[in-house]
Amino acid sequence: MPHRRSRLVASLAVLLGLLLTSTAFAAEPPNQHDPCAKAGRDSCATTGTGQYRTYRYGVRWFGDYRKAVDGVDDPLFCVDLRFWYPSKAFGYERRSAAGLHNRDGDAVSTTDLRRMAYALWLDDTSKQDVTQQSATMLYVHGLMGDAAPGEVASNAIGAAVQSRYATIARSAAKYAGPYTVEVKAPAALTVGTPATLTARVLAASGAAVPNVTVALDGTGTGTLPQSVRTGATGTAQAAFTPTSAGAAKVVATAQVAASLPALYVPTKGAAARSGQRLAGPATATVAATAQAPVKAAPQVHTQISQQAVAPGAAITDSVAVSGLAGESVTVDAALYGPFPAPDKTACDGAPVWQGTFTAAADGTYVTDPVTLATPGYYTYVESIADSDRVAGTHTTCGDAAETTVVRGAPVVATQVSAQASAPGAQITDSLVVTGLGALSATVNVELWGPYASKDAITCQGTPVWTGTVAAAGDGTYQSAPVTLPAAGYYTYRETLAETPAYAATATACGDVAETVLAKAAPVVTTAVADQVVRPGSALADHVKVAGLGTTPATVDVRLYGPYATRAAMDCQGTPYWKGTVPVTGDGDFTSPKTVVKRAGFYVYVESIAGSDTVTAAATACGDEAETSLSAPQILTGRGDVRAHPAPSASASAADAVKPTRVAIPRLGVDAAIVGADIDLSDGTLGIPQNIDRVGWWRDGAAPGDSTGTILLAGHVDSAKRGAGAFYPLKSARTGDTITVTSDDGKARRYRVTSVRRMPKAQLPTSVFTRTGEKRLVLVTCGGTFDARAGHYRDNIVVTAKAA
User: Fold this and answer.
1) Residues whose CB is less than 8 angstroms from the CB of residue 564 and which lie 6 or more positions away in sequence, other chains included
2) What pairs with residue 709 in β-bridges?
3) Which of 117, 131, 427, 608 is deepest in the core (most CB within 10 A)?
């Protein structure tokens, strides 16, 4: 920087020059007389923003110069240290800075020139700042490379300037030119659709330069702004809306720092050699173009002519087309269907009709009419194919405004699976549905009943069963199986409730094809509560009813008896007792109890009366499960010898193997055996009057039977004739052998297992059974003789098993 030196300073300089090397100070002006310097300060009034500071190199101006060059208002900075302050009188002319050398003859590199150009070009607002301009002055001289050590160091005049110097140096290194403009628009644009383009100014380093104004000039871009500013991030965005199909074009232009600063050189008089050169901002223009295809973006809005029609009606579609932006297009129209329901529409198969029309401009168009015969849902789809100038579009499949229903008139014809059935059986109903076309429907199915007769069918109240059948159009369907709970007449009725898609319909109540008779065929099985009882006991019958389902009925119960033998049971005449058992259907029931006073066989007979809906049923007379024995007494003592009725020819044991003789060798017993029945007159077992013979109870077990008790009863004695056949029986012992000979020629041996004496009233009823373990039982009288009653008080009971 030029300054006026006193002679003292000059002398000191000479002295210092002897002490320092030849490169310690850079070049000096040939003429040391600076016309614009006074006491080291500018006297030509060309300084701008900056400050005077005195430091180790004396007084110096740290800042810019203004008004030194005619016609140039930009702040300028000296590039030659120690040379004259600038003056308008020096005749400054602008020269190229290419190949710039400092006053020592050293070339300034291209990179440094570019960085200098950027630093001088920075935002004007910062150029009014003393610190900024002081730092810029130091930075520019630092790039020139002609300063003495520390003369233009970044910290030469303080920390504030040093910090700003560092900022300038970083920015210049990052953002120095040369520059390019980058402008990007979306790859595909549509007319009327807002879009955004991005603009950046890139430095030689590739960094986006901040705070640069980019001018924009667009074609077909509508509201594109005239300019944008890159801001702190170095990126600027601009919103625009394309106005026409074809292509949108944007030219982006930016005024940036030139690659070289503006250089001003003094040309007059001694200043031509001694005046300092000045550098200032220089501007360059960079530009780029972005171009993107633009398509018209048509919108299609449609409305079907009718949303519900009868079969055979014609429909059309009204198509409103907008957004063509002057383009002419072909609209493809397709009608799909029929579908069973709106949510079942699909537009991926073959349409039932298709056609085209030309939309030459925005407006409303109508498709050709289409006649529809099959009930179902139909939907239009309109589409415009994609092209270079038009974006393709299509309406939504199944849109409500595009959908119509051809209403069905359903008819249901039905046939029950069986017209004759039984409680507990399953039935179904076959439905033939017509008039639905492709529509889906829910058929409500009701089964009514049971009714006592066909004339009683009303289909009122609560059905016995309800269900639904999903009908997917015309066809044959079957209802779910239903188990008939009780006897009676049942009838199906089917209904379809009215919907927007079809009319209501119902089958007739009680239609013959829909009616079934469930006739019960009850089966009654019984088992008397006790098969052997004592006279005076109460009898009841367990009744099991099947085949009624839940049909209520009355079981008539009759008890016949007493009979002397099983074979005598005929269930004729007046029953011993009769009553009824009300039943609620299938199940187990018990008849009321009745007391049997006399010995003999009693048999139950049950019956259910028949009706239109129930078949009559009855149990057989004499069934063993229905038979109970009121056990007779066994009287064989001295006062008990009497005449008994002879066994009838129809005795129940007629076909059995008959025992003919019994022998107990150790006791000396050897007696003939004859048959014995119950003597109904006195309620005793009718053993032979001949005391030497033994009676065999013919309704008990027989020799050779696999179960039951063979019962032999014999006299112990007689008042007139003495000891009877079983007189020795009281002396029997366990292990004694008994031999029974039968009419089949076999002699069967038994071994005694027990000998007991008990009161006659306690004689086990099990001795009269034909069930249970196979055994032989011998019975006679014993114990104390009761003269007043004329009987022995006890029975002697000998039990034996096959040996």
Assistant:
1) 600, 601, 645, 648, 677, 678, 679, 680
2) 775
3) 117
